Amino acid sequence: MKYIIGIIGLVVALGLAWIASSDKKNVKYKPIVTMIVLQFILGFALLNTEAGNILVGGIASGFEVLLKCAAEGVNFVFGGIVNDNQFTFFIGVLLPIVFISALIGILQHWKILPFVVKYIGLVLSKVNGMGKLESYNAVASAILGQSEVFISVKKQLGLLPKHRLYTLCASAMSTVSMSIVGSYMVLLKPKYVVTALVLNLFGGFIIASIINPYTVTDEEDILEVEQEQASAEAAITSDSQVKQKQTFFEVLGEYIMDGFKVAVIVAAMLIGFVAIIAMVNTMFKGIFGISFQDMLGYVFSPFAFLMGVPLSESIGAASIMATKLVSNEFVAMNLLAGGTIQLSARATAIVSVFLVSFANFSSIGIIAGAVKGLHEEQGNVVARFGLKLLYGATLVSVLTATIVGLIV
Question: DSSP alpha helices (H): ranges in 289-375?
Answer without folding.
Answer: 292-307, 314-326, 329-338, 345-355, 361-374
